[in-house]
Design goal:
alpha/beta, Rossmann fold, 6-stranded parallel β-sheet, 4-stranded parallel β-sheet, 10 strands, globular, binds D-glutamic acid
């Protein structure tokens, strides 16, 4: 199976696209809702939580795990790939969401000025400026941390004055850094839920990039290039959902993200 992990609901925006593009494959989703958000936590904590989550997904039979969380990708991916995976499951794979987005982002900017909106953890890690510099050396990257957006979304506040206020504030802070920014990446898998507010607050010529569709295309491409992984994946078109918090609350929150009803099970990690 393909495991998809996020600190909470956000990865569902990626899962939805993955299931559309790779409809025949089986997926396992894990949201660490009990410990979400990760964005303001320390490097070591995020690494340990992510390790536990991937360990759980491996135990469920996942051959490939996608960290559908920028914070976990920024803080934990490299360390898990280099130090942990070779010891515990050298034949399995963990992928993140930062590199795939960075590969394409520069192509859409005419001004060579790109804005990144993400959690404090993602911004602090400098992962986007570092990755983008590899693929698009001439591009300037401007980052804005949006620490209150994930807590709002996790609590179902995706419209209304609270969300409006903070989206306006963060987009203004980003654009004040460089008014010529013409591409803004939603570098947090929760943020697509606030897309209408981002659209309202950014000039119409600015391209807003979501990760979900891109990750789905890149995963499809990855599986084509890695038959040794692809051959191990089961294909019954199913998805199993796990959360570390109350399953009923997850099911009703997930319905907002997925636009359909699901039934999850509660698990504890660690
Ligand atoms: N969806 C996660 C991301 O992409 C949110 C991280 C958090 O829990 O703060 O960064």
């Amino acid at each position: 199976m393909i495991g998809v992990f996020d600190s909470g609901f956000g990865g569902l925006t990626v899962l939805k696209e993955l299931r559309q593009k790779l409809a025949s494959y089986d997926f396992v989703y894990l949201g660490d809702n009990a410990r979400s958000p990760y964005g303001n936590r320390s490097f070591d904590t995020i690494l340990e939580y992510t390790r536990q989550a991937v360990d759980f997904l491996f135990a469920q039979g996942c051959e490939l795990v996608i960290l559908a969380c920028n914070t976990a990708s920024a803080r934990a991916l490299r360390s898990l790939q280099q130090n942990w995976l070779p010891q515990v499951a050298p034949q399995k794979r963990i992928l993140g969401v930062i590199r795939p987005l960075s590969e394409d982002l520069g192509a859409w900017s005419k001004s060579a000025k790109i804005g990144i909106l993400g959690t404090s953890g993602t911004v602090k890690s400098q992962s986007y400026p570092l990755e983008l510099a590899k693929f698009w050396p001439g591009v300037q990257v401007f980052q804005q941390a949006c620490p209150l957006l994930v807590p709002l979304i996790e609590n179902g506040e995706v419209s209304g004055p609270g969300a409006e206020y903070f989206v306006r504030k963060y987009t203004q802070q980003l654009m004040a850094q460089a008014p010529q920014i013409d591409v803004v990446a939603l570098a947090c898998t929760h943020y697509p839920l606030l897309l209408p507010l981002f659209r309202d607050n950014l000039a119409s010529h600015i391209k807003i990039v979501e990760q979900g569709p891109l990750i789905a295309t890149k995963t499809q491409d990855y599986l084509r290039r890695h038959p040794e992984i692809e051959q191990k994946l089961t294909q019954n078109g199913k998805c199993i959902y796990y959360t570390t918090d109350e399953s009923q609350a997850f099911d009703s929150g997930a319905a907002d993200f997925l636009g359909s009803q699901i039934k999850s099970s509660q698990v504890s990690l660690g």
